[in-house]
Each structure stands twice: as C-alpha cells, then as structure tokens.
Amino acid sequence: MSELVPSIVIVGGGFGGSAAATALRKAPARITLIDRNNYHVFQPLLYQVATATLSPGQISAPIRELLRRQVNTTVLLGEVTGLNTSEHFVLADSRDRQGVQLHYDYLILATGARHSYFGHDDFAKFAPGLKGLGDAEAIRNNVLQAFEQAEAEEDPSRHRELLTFVLVGAGPTGVEMASALAYLVRNTLRSEYRRIDPTSARIVLADAGKRVLATFSEGLSTAAAKRLESLGVEIRLGHAVERVDEDGVLIAGERINSKTVIWTAGVAPSPAGKWLAAETDHAGRVRVQSDLSIPLHPEIFVAGDTASLDQDGKPLPGVAQVAMQQGRYVGKLIRQRLLGKSPPPPFRYFDKGNMAVVGKGFAILQSGRLELSGFVAWLGWALIHLLYLGKQSLRMSVLLQWMWTFLTGSRGSRLILNANEQTPVQTTSSAASNPVSSSPAQQLVAAEK
Amino acid sequence: MSELVPSIVIVGGGFGGSAAATALRKAPARITLIDRNNYHVFQPLLYQVATATLSPGQISAPIRELLRRQVNTTVLLGEVTGLNTSEHFVLADSRDRQGVQLHYDYLILATGARHSYFGHDDFAKFAPGLKGLGDAEAIRNNVLQAFEQAEAEEDPSRHRELLTFVLVGAGPTGVEMASALAYLVRNTLRSEYRRIDPTSARIVLADAGKRVLATFSEGLSTAAAKRLESLGVEIRLGHAVERVDEDGVLIAGERINSKTVIWTAGVAPSPAGKWLAAETDHAGRVRVQSDLSIPLHPEIFVAGDTASLDQDGKPLPGVAQVAMQQGRYVGKLIRQRLLGKSPPPPFRYFDKGNMAVVGKGFAILQSGRLELSGFVAWLGWALIHLLYLGKQSLRMSVLLQWMWTFLTGSRGSRLILNANEQTPVQTTSSAASNPVSSSPAQQLVAAEK
Description:
2 copies of one chain form a homodimer.
Chain A: E1 7-11, H1 15-23, E2 30-35, E3 39-41, H2 46-50, E4 60-62, H3 63-66, E5 73-77, E6 79-84, E7 89-94, E8 97-103, E9 106-109, E10 113-115, H4 133-151, H5 156-162, E11 164-168, H6 172-188, E12 202-207, H7 218-230, E13 233-237, E14 241-245, E15 248-251, E16 254-257, E17 260-263, E18 267-269, H8 272-276, E19 286-287, E20 293-294, E21 297-302, E22 307-308, E23 310-311, E24 314-315, H9 320-338, E25 354-357, E26 363-367, E27 370-374, H10 375-388, H11 392-408, H12 429-433
Parallel strand pairs in A: 1-2, 1-9, 2-5, 9-21, 11-12, 11-17, 12-13, 19-22
Antiparallel strand pairs in A: 3-4, 6-7, 7-8, 10-18, 14-15, 15-16, 20-21, 23-24, 25-26, 26-27
Helix pairs in contact in A: 1-9
C-alpha cells in the first residue's frame, strides 16, 4: 500500500463500527479501527453477565481477532478525546501516550451510547446502569454481595432492604434483568443460605410510562407483564422515580428501601455531537443525512446509537439491528466511492422484528404482523441470539451454559470479584465504633439457635 | 440444633478448608466457613486465566454452592483480622461491619499463602504474583496490554521492551506460565497485528536454582527444559534476580528491559502464625503436631500452605494434594472426637504424584517410580485436572475450551477489563507535555507505509 491510499478511521468497535469495518474488507484503503476496549461485546446478552449466568468472556471477542484476516485494517486500543474536522484528524489517548493524532480521509463515528439519568446525574452513584462489561460485573458484584450481607446480618429489619432490588426503566433491559433476577433468587440461590430465604427477595420494576416494553404491541406488553407478575416481580407504572439515594428510591411519594438500585432507563449518546459541533436531536444524537453523513462533511459518517435519523416520520430506535445495518451501509458507500462507482440509495432500515425474554423459557416476539409469546418465541430468541454471537466458540459455550442453567438452575459465573477492594457502602456505626465489641448481637455464630 | 451443639469455625475455602468442611458433613456441629471471597478457586489452572485461555468463572465455583446441601454449615463472606485463643473467637470484617466475633469450640485455619519476595517487597509493585483470580486478571491485562501498546508504538526500539516478558521462578507456575505465553504469542496472536510480529516476543524464565522444576527428577527436569527451549523460552539459571524496577530486571549484572515481569517464585504463608503467636518455621508457616493441632491448643488445627509439618525428615510441600488430605484429616478427627470415637492415627501424606504442563500437548509426570514426559503425560494431566475440578459444569466447559484452543489456537477470554481505569505505567514525556502535538512521529496512521 502506498501513502496515496486513502485512510479511513472508524471510532468504536461495537455493532456499527464492526459492521462498517467488515463491509470495507476489500476496499482499497488503510483502515484504522480504534476502541477504548480490546473487545467487541454482544450487548443483548449483557444482562446475563449482570445476573451471573454467563462470563464476560462468553459474550465478547477481541476486535483484533474478529478482523485478523482483514489485512487492510489496523486495530488500536485507545480513547478518542476529540476531532479536528478542518485538518482531518482524530485525537486519541492510549495507556501510555496522549494526544495521538489519527489522520483520516473518511471518518466513521460509531461510539454508541451511555445511560441518561434525565438530568439527575446525582442518581448515577446509587443506581448504576448497564452498558458495558464493567457495568455488568459491578452489578453482579452488588447483587451477590447483597445476599452475602444479608446472610451475615442478624437484624431481620435489615434483611428487607438488602433483599429489595429496584430496576428503574421497564424497557427490554429492565424486563430482562428483573426476570433474570427473579429466576436467580427463586432457583439458583434458594437452598444455599441458612439465615435468609432468598425467595423472599422483593424485585420492583418501575417505569414512568403506562406499560412495560412500550415499543411492543399492547397484547405482547400485557403478556410480558403477566409473566413478570407470575415470577414475583412487582411492577410500578405511571410515575417517574423522584429520588435515588443510598437508602433506596422515592416513587410517587412512596419510599422503597433498597440497597441495590439498577438504572435500566434512558440512553444518552456519546460526546460525538460535541466533537463535531454538529446539530443534535433533543437526546443529543447527531442529526445525519439520508446517507448517514453530516451536513457540509461528506467525509464524516455517524452510525448506530450516536446517530439520529427519521424514517417514515419516526426516529429510528437505538438498537443493535439499526447499528449493524447503518455500519454496513456506510462501509459499502465509502467502498463504492473509492472505486468510483455510483453510491447506494439513501439508507433505509429494514426492521426484522424485536424480541425480549421474560425469564426461563418465555419471550415475546414481534416481527411485522407476527406476534408470539411463550416458549416458541423463547426458542426463536435463543436461536437468533446464538446465530448473531460472532464467534463459533462463543456459540457453543453459551449454548451449553444455557442448557446447563436451564436443567440445573446452576449459574456459570457467580463470582464477586475484588470483594475486598470495594468501598464499603455503609458501616454499622455500633460495630465501627467498637471493633472488638462482644455484644451478643455481633456474635454471628453464637447467636444462632 | 440446640445451643449446646459445638461450633466449628473454618477459616478459608481453598483446598484445605473445603475438604475439612466436606469431611464434617455429618458431624453433630454448627460449622461456619468464612472466606474473603465468595468462591473456591481451582488454583492449578490459574495460569490459564492469566494467559487468557479460561475465564475466571471456569475455574471457580461459589463456596456456598459447593456446600449447599450441607445443612449444618453456614458460609460467610468476610475477612478474618485476628483471633482470641483464650476466649475462643475469631475476629472478622465484612463489607459493612467490622470486628464481628465468631465463637468457636474447634477452629480450623486453612488460610493459604501469598508470594514471597524474599525480603524485596519493593519488587511487588513491578512484578505481580499469581495467587488469586484478581492476580490472574491483572496479569492477563498486563500481558495483552503490552501487545496493544507495542502495536500503537512506532518507535521499534520500544517494541523490544514491550514484547519482553520475564518470569521469575522456574517452579511449576513459572514453567506453565512461560510455556502458555510462548504458545499465546506463536499461535493465538501471530496474525492479528499489523505493525509488530508477536512471534518475535522474548520470554525469559529465570531462577536462582540449577534447574527448572527442581522438585522433579533430573531427567524430567531436563526434558522440560528442552521443551521450553523448543518453544522459544530463554532459560536463565543459577542467579537470583538482583533488582526489579519499572524498566525490567537485573540478573547476574545483566539488565533485561521488560515492561512485564511476573513473579512466580517464593511462597509466604498467611498471617495465621501471627494471629496464633505460635511457633513458625523459617518460611513463617505454623509448626503443627502430628494431628495437625498446635501445641497447648488441641482445639486449633492448621491445614494446607499455612501449616509446617515434616514427614520422613522432610517438610511437606505447599501443594493442593497436601492441603486436601490435611483438611480431610482434620475434619475426620474432629468428627470422631465429637462422636466420642477414638482419634485417627497421626496424619500421613500420601503422595499420588506430581505433574507440570509445558505447552500444548506436553507434560511431565512423576509418581513413585513412574516417570513420564510428552503427550501421554499431558493427557494424564488434562484428565486429572478435569476430574478434580469440583463442578460437573466446569468440567464440560473447560474440556470444550481446551479442545477448541487445541484445534484453533483461539482463546476463551482475551479481554482487557477496565483498560481505561488502569494507572498508566509510563507516559512518554513528549506526548504528555504536548497533547495536541502534530509531530509526524505521532501520526499513527499517516506514518504507516
């Protein structure tokens, strides 16, 4: 390759960025994909890491490995910090170097999204969200730790708040997390504690909207809600969460004491809009043109959760399917342009359908006019998720784990990693002020009957 | 159970503590097992987590799950901080409470070991050891990050130190890590980088002794050394490491520049000796009597790496087999005593044999007069390790991963977790002082040919 070969920089190795890179496989260009992580993560199964069924390694693969046969592509680990659109370079920091410049002739921004706390950023501290592997491991640690703390706690009044889990947001992530938690306490954990009854755990799923899984049809939404209730999940609709603090949440004036609040609502895009100083929608996503480029910059494209595009008068949803199709489209468009061929027609999203799983052996599925709920939909869900898991070895490993968990209730990865390195959430004042106290209440073993 | 039932506290859920708990399955007692982690880890395979073959979840299982059917046993997550041997209680901290007291009638200490830097504790910062899952993940991060940094680095003089890995200590851990690293660079990584050649990585295995795997026969030791050399591992024997710092190591006056030094030598026992104020051997292990109790305290037992016991004039080694047999012995002894039966004869270790794996498809095995090296020994190694992996589901999952890695070279868990949260090891001063510099040397992409 000579210096004259155009360079393409792709920022982000999620669904959008990976699809763009793959579509540029045979393009006459030098491609650089930069991501802050060395792995691509299969986000639709992230909740299964957070609920201890799967290991992080089972839903992710090194980006480098996925693109290893694509010799025109270099993969870099680094964090993009800004752009210079007039001089055409991306600024990035890596572990040992800062302010590295990546020159581009074409730029694809596929930087994904984080959660939005709707202006209440102070909630973040008490209610972590679920977007990356780090989040999933942190939530898993918190959930498992709550049971451990309850088992070590003799004051039954504290068991209640330790064993209350609140999920804020009843979209697919909230529903899938709530049902997986319900399954965790009622099956996997049920016989393993001596002082607490894990099945007494309270799982609350709250949403400001009128129904769960509001993007699905009313019938499916009702079916999912019924199923959640049969699993023991408490659904609270119609009221936004007013407050989240270290003791729990406040919903419609009512306080729910909980040591584990998980944020499954709201999506905020990455700072790409700010880097570009481009027009954004109300949620901060970059307004793109029908070919996914931005106005005045035919060489800059935005794909996936970072982009805002209307189709048939409605904004496209921030889901994996949209990101993949947009990434592929941009890759193809750039290749055509490099080869001097005519560009493809404007981007159009083809909705293959949506699904959400609600506990063991139950899912809802909506595709065009087809609506399904129950076991068959769940089989479809499992099949499609296995097919989309990029690597053959992951497919086998996840399939086996699912079969095992389905049959035995045993989970694949119930570890509290770095249990001792965590900041204590709260310290019981009496114990802290009197570390060698011998009050009977602290005699964990002797106090047992 | 009534208050009169005696209470047994087991500190540590490793091989020794778990074996003791299991042996007390039917004892008329209230047993409490406390560990700082919620999981039992299968240490012999830890190096496979450190070299990205297996996930942490594949070599560990929740202690709670292993003991879930054992209704006389409570499992607690907490860190033991001290003992009161006159009033018979253990002091422990948990995440939210400190100074909790656990009363015991019988106490079993099986708290394992950490690495010893032979008085050079300042080495620890630059040369992490491998004892727990956290260590294994940290080493995995460091190793993978070194390749990422090298790929992002255009100055070839820095490639050399980034791609040099030094292992200090040529016992089983050092040999297994070195050969697994050699296999990682020569197979898994070889085609995935564009600027560096991973197969050019230099792997140095250093030991102060005269041969690798000194606990094996001379013939097996030579076979292992030959095999290591054929894998490209550089062996340096006969000189202790004089210095470890951020730039590498100093051995016999020669400096080896390396960004990744791993400590695989030296074992230091847990602070149990201090808690007990008991007699210890030169390595700090608690001297136990022939029934594994300590002098003057027939109710306190020490098992595994924390205990020091001679057999036939030689100290027992700190290996999993010894810990398991000692744990089982102590459990049985206490049960007999509770049932008013005669105690078992003094503890005697039965050595079933030892093995070490040296890369793909090669191991050495020594059992009594039997000595084996090569593929058959490796099959034996794989079989025995699978059998001893406590859980059925782990066995299946590890077996499949090994088969997959054997056939394709692809690893199961090549993730750099929290890549951005790590403290930068070093900052190139020019880049740091000039974060928006546009010096050609920093133009990662433009500078490529």
